[in-house]
Amino acid sequence: MNKKNKYSVTDHLITRVTAWIAGAIVLVLAGWGIISLWELYHFEETNDAQVQEYINPVISRAGGFIVAVKFEENQDMKKGDTLLVIDNREYVIQQAQTEAALLNARSQLTVLESNVETLTEISEVNRAQIAAAEAKVVKQQLDYARYQKLYEVESATKQQLENVQALKDVADADLLSANKNYRASLSKIKDTQAQQIVINAEIKRLSALLDRHKLDVSYTVITAPYNCRMGRRNVEKGQMIDAGQVLAYIVDQETDKWVVANYKETQIGGMQIGEAAEIEADAYPGKKFKGVIISLSPATGSSFSLLPPDNSTGNYVKIVQRVPVRIRLTGDRKEVDLLKAGMNVNVSISKQRS
Questions:
Q1: Where, subcellularly, is it found (predicted)?
Q2: pLDDT tens digits, residue range 121-160?
């Protein structure tokens, strides 16, 4: 009889404990359900979201051998810090050759300018000779006319008339020669000036080429374009690289980070630019980050895919599409820096009720 009573008490105790446990579970589930329904009613949530920031490749603009690598992976770098140094001897030689050619062209231009001045003076002398020749021609014409009259009245011999005529012909020839010399000197000036134009064009070409060589020399030292953190490194000292080759990756630390949250098309109806968002990263459970909507994609994610779906090609199955929503992370920079590009996060945005 006592044994039966003992079992009855034990069963009653187990039943009571089980009932309390079941009740607690029911209460927890009920509370969780109420909280979930409340959040579902007041917030639009998604776990299809990742942290994004600008990750840019470091690309060489000159080829050659790497002589120095000044960074390590994951190292913080300031704007202007040297990342890589390429052997620049070939580029320096090309620059020196162009500088020599440019100096030669400028010297030729100086010589041509001097020639123009000399030829201009010669042309002035020739023009003066024309005036003298013209005066001589006038004198000989007068002498010839006078002797011709004397010859007609037999006061001069024919030989004297012929001598005067010969002197007149010589004066005419001298005038013709002076005119030709003057025109020739003017032509030489024009030819020299044309050569100046050619040399000036060559100087411009060589100056542009020299600027290009100077750029090539500057390209042999690759510096950080902004404050950044180095990512993956693809190069080592002594390696031969080509222009356009990706050498490393850098993460921009001067711009804000953002989250791309891919919401269902049925969730974005009330979302507005400037609306606050709450972010929780899988890496930091329980820690809340703040953000603000800065843009909504003009199209669904599938529309930007390599092969966008075409529902008119066959059997149609309706699938809820996702629309990328861009959310800028706000708050303290140190806290925001805890989030890395590519991290998965959960995003909650308050529903807008009219």
A1: Membrane
A2: 888 777 777 777 777 777 777 766 776 777 677 666 777 7
How does residue 353 score in pLDDT terms, banded at 50, 70 and 90? very low
Give the start-end residues of each E strand in the chain: 43-46, 49-52, 55-59, 64-69, 76-77, 82-86, 221-223, 228-233, 240-241, 246-252, 258-264, 276-281, 288-296, 322-330, 345-350
CA–CA separation, 220 and 63 (whole Å): 8
Contact 69, 235 (CB under 8 A): yes
The C-alpha atoms of residue 206 and residue 211 are separated, in whole angstroms, by 9
CA atoms within 13 A on the CB side of 184: 9
53, amino acid identity: E
Q: Is 291 helix (H, G, I), strand (E, B) or coil?
A: strand
- Residue (of 53, 36, 46) closest to 280 by Cα position: 46
342 in the Ramachandran plot: left (φ > 0), alpha (ψ -120 to 50) or beta? left
Both tokens of 113, joined, read 């300018």
